[in-house]
Amino acid sequence: MTRTKIASLLSQYELGQEVLVKGWVRSFRNNQFIQLNDGSTIKNIQAVIEFENWNENELKRITTGAALAIKGTVVESTGAGQAIEIQVKELDILGDANPEEVAKTVMQPKRHSLEYLREQAHLRFRTNVFGAVFRIRHAVSYAIHQFFNDRGFYYLHTPIITGSDAEGAGEMFRVSTLDPKNPPLNEQGEIDWSEDFFGKQVNLTVSGQLEAELGALALGQVYTFGPTFRAENSNTARHLAEFWMIEPEVAFNDLEDNMNLTEEFLKHICNYVLTNCKDDLEFLNEREKNEQKQKPQNERNELTLAERLEFVVANSFERITYTKAIELLQDSKPFKKKQFKYPVEWGTDLQSEHERYLVEKHFKKPVIITDYPASFKAFYMRQNEDGKTVAAMDVLFPGIGEIVGGSQREERLDVLKKKCADFNIPEEEIWWYLDTRRFGSVPHSGFGLGFERMVMFVTGMTNIRDVIPFPRTPKNCEF
Amino acid sequence: MTRTKIASLLSQYELGQEVLVKGWVRSFRNNQFIQLNDGSTIKNIQAVIEFENWNENELKRITTGAALAIKGTVVESTGAGQAIEIQVKELDILGDANPEEVAKTVMQPKRHSLEYLREQAHLRFRTNVFGAVFRIRHAVSYAIHQFFNDRGFYYLHTPIITGSDAEGAGEMFRVSTLDPKNPPLNEQGEIDWSEDFFGKQVNLTVSGQLEAELGALALGQVYTFGPTFRAENSNTARHLAEFWMIEPEVAFNDLEDNMNLTEEFLKHICNYVLTNCKDDLEFLNEREKNEQKQKPQNERNELTLAERLEFVVANSFERITYTKAIELLQDSKPFKKKQFKYPVEWGTDLQSEHERYLVEKHFKKPVIITDYPASFKAFYMRQNEDGKTVAAMDVLFPGIGEIVGGSQREERLDVLKKKCADFNIPEEEIWWYLDTRRFGSVPHSGFGLGFERMVMFVTGMTNIRDVIPFPRTPKNCEF
Q1: What does the record note on quaternary structure (chains A, B) (predicted)?
Q2: pLDDT digits (tens, 9 = 90+) for B68-107
């Protein structure tokens, strides 16, 4: 008999049919009602046994966390909250779970702190919250691949180990196979990197963008979706040392095309989750509502999780220049009442308090801010006519701040070379990048989405360590 | 006017319609015929200009590699090999390409060696061969995500930086931010790894399998698709230091389920490429045919590239045990004529010559060999009743050898602990892995596919460096 997954059974069944289900016990009540979960859905199937017919020693082994195979008949359920249940005919205990041991884990059916769950990241998959989070994380990944494939983009695997650090996005991790204690030295007494595995000093990538541009300027449209790294000592709820990033890059796109693509992309993801993750989303929505009740009124979210996703899908993103943003902020009540902590004037970077004001108070919807002062942004962003600003864009989301950063790229070789000089990037380091501007250079644009930030947004989780299976942070590299 | 991609135009057009296309010049003949490519397909669109109406200086700038925007009318083509062409009305040169400089690159339209193309990996995307390879690489990626998503698997991002090396799959790259020349030492004079970023010594992952098992034993079915690393000094056409791997893991699956899944999976990929990559496949098929003509008759492939894909789709994979394989080999002509270089007896590992005999001569189709002697295989493979063999499986493909390796996993805690001891794996290193056998352990199985090996198979490329955008190999980490 073939196993039926619980998700399939709940969505399509016939009363009276015989089924075989396998899964893990979430609870066992009154020696009679087993709640079984197999990971295919957040919902359990209730399996009912007539305990009179069962061996007492076997009954004792039906405990939270144990794995069972159950054969039985699908019948209407008289209990609340479920349409059907299984009348158990045969029951095999595939794997026991000692209740005293289970009591020391996150499987114990009671409320656990997220911190405690993180310490048992290997078992937290078996909880409702993390089952939902990681099923949704999968859905977001798939939505991304689907979005780009449907539009004729090619997935480009840019390198993880890289000899280039031109992107300058942050501190890097060194990769080496040299003897760490006694590395070979050259005549100057410096480490002889030519002896290392790659014959030079190499690092973990901070971005695949430069390589993605190489692909886009031949294949037309590409995207990356891979791990990126920052060796920054940031112990916050928004930073990881290892995280996943999506970086599309499109030949012939200008900044407006780039904004259109970004908006369509983010809406697609939210819409996909709303359509395909109903049960998990409903669970996380309720969870957040309950969490919110613990908070003072003025700290609560205005919208529920599901409402926030619907809100992104339904609303056009506001598009304003940095210059306009500064004007709006200078005209704002908090500015006039001196409630902003940081200064607001042209040439200073926007702080979180300013972004939140614009997104959450002023426009009350996602905002794209464009054309930032050149000095804030990377060397490859296209210089505008005014000579002061670049064709950059940041997408700001309610509650989460910057979720996407992008730009039109500088396609003019002479301007780009000058920018390299200004940013102290030796041309011989990125000769290959400059080559694309030598041979049929074209306007092109792209952006980067921090994958975990997006998963935070669609799950409502507020700590980034709770949306990646095994988080890597300073002094923490478990499992 | 919106740009039309060349792939769209060629698949759907109306004669007389006005279009805007943008792309790069592949060739310009008789001051009249421009072959333009935009990466959306291997096919070019021919754009025809009446040179009498064009400025001579502009004509001179229409050179191989230059980027153009062309507006014109779609008309029937009188030339061979194309149904339509564009009568040019407006032409913008978006980016020049100096012919003398282009002549020094792989864009020069002539036959280049693959070695030379590799040195210009940043420009080889613009050639027909590599355009085709990387479009197909994308298609294979997408086919994989689609296969698993359609079957209710969840994509699990297992960690890249890891403190565990229990998998024992090979030499690892060290990741560190310590001062490489003067690392901090502890009282014993050894490097004080507690001072490093993660507070301990960490490496780049060689496999996500152990973590994937954690996911599968809660979510039911998961798969990984991420980069993996080997710091091995293997300068061969089949090895990379950085490559991508797919590792599905399924709770409740035994070895037979695992074989069924693998076979269905590999057939799906081949079928997807046959269906979705017709033009690119046809090009690579012709390319291989021409290559084959240069070879002596007895070294040529029996089947063309396309035939090999169809062959995988059409044939059931042969399934035999290692013990049976040894018997077949001992009964074979080459064994009796002492033509095998390596010995054939129970307890020695199968060599490439043996695998090729079984796949290419004896069965003439893909072969799955199962139940290898335990000593050849990793600690986590399930011990068979005979006490000598494990529930392992290797899938062998014609021309390429082992493409998939997998097994049913050892789910019995006592057996697994004994295996850890046998393999010198300290239990405290993988307490989290052992935990899954403590709490509702169930039979489960999985396998690993080297992504680049699969891309080699479906493109016919014979060097693994030619199927990944920027290969990382010993002493080579460019771009």
Answers
A1: Homodimer.
A2: 999 999 999 988 888 999 999 999 999 999 999 999 999 9
Rounded distance between C-alpha atoms, residue A304 and residue A289, angstroms: 7
Query: Which secondary-structure segment (H or E) carries A260?
Result: helix A255-276
Shortest CA distance from A205: residue in chain B: B479
Which chain B residues touch A177 with a CB distance below 8 Å?
A: 171, 173-174, 231
pTM over 0.90, yes/no: yes
Q: Are A122 and B435 in contact (CB < 8 Å)? A: yes
CATH top class, domain B6-104: mainly beta
Question: Contact B173/A176, CB-based, under 8 Å?
Answer: yes
Across B118-139, average pLDDT: 97
Q: At what angle do helices A451-459 and A305-314 cross, to 10 degrees?
A: 120
Helix (H) or strand (E) holding A368: strand A367-370
Q: CA distances (Å), B280 to each of B42, B120, B133, B294, in order?
A: 6, 21, 8, 22
Residues B397, B438 contacting (CB under 8 angstroms): no
Take residue B273 and report the two structure tokens written for it.
């490429």
Ramachandran angles phi, psi of B84, nearest 5°? -130, 165
Whether A92 and chain B come into contact, CB under 8 Å, resolves to no
Residue A117 CA: distances (Å) to CA of A25, A302, A468, B66: 19, 28, 13, 56
Cα B65 vs. chain centroid, distance in angstroms?
29
State the pLDDT at residue A78.
86
Segment A392-411 mean pLDDT? 94
Angstroms from B371 CA to nearest CA on chain A: 23
pLDDT in tens, A72-113: 999 999 888 889 999 999 999 999 999 999 999 999 988 899
The answer to whether B154 contacts A134, with C-beta atoms less than 8 Å apart, is: yes
Kindly state whether B123 is in contact with chain A, defined as any CB-CB distance less than 8 angstroms: yes
Mark which residues 295-314 of A lie under 8 Å from B by CB: none
Residues 255-274 of B with CB under 8 A from A: none
Look up residue B134 and give its amino acid.
Answer: F
Chain A residues within 8 A of B244 when measuring between CB atoms: 157
Closest CA to A435 of B349, B213, B343, B95: B95
pLDDT digit string (tens) for A149-163? 999 999 999 999 999
Contact B198 A475 (CB under 8 A): yes
Q: Comparing C-alpha atoms, which of B321, B58, B174 is closest to residue A174?
A: B174
CATH topology of domain B128-154+241-466: BirA Bifunctional Protein; domain 2 (3.30.930)
pLDDT for position A168? 64
Mean pLDDT for A6-20 is: 97
Q: Do B125 and A215 touch (CB under 8 A)?
A: yes
B71/B61 Cα distance (integer angstroms): 17
Residue extents of the structural domains in chain A: 6-104, 128-154+241-466
A140 part of contact set with chain B, CB < 8 Å: no
Which pLDDT band holds residue A199 (cuts at 50, 70, 90)? very high
Q: Residue A202 and residue B477: Cβ atoms within 8 Å?
A: yes
Min distance B259 CA to chain A CA atoms (Å): 16
pLDDT in tens, A319-346: 999 999 999 999 999 999 999 999 999 9
Kindly report the CA angle at B435 between B434 and B439, in degrees rounded to 5?
A: 125
Q: Hey, is A291 helix, strand or coil? A: helix
What residue spans of B251-302 are helical by DSSP H? 255-276, 278-293
Q: Which residues in chain B have Cβ-Cβ distances shorter than 8 Å to A191?
A: 180-181
| CA-closest candidate to residue B38, choices B54, B55, B24 | B24
Phi, psi of A430 (to 5 degrees): -130, 40
CA distance to partner chain B, nearest, from residue A396 (Å): 26
A232 interfaces chain B, CB cutoff of 8 Å: no
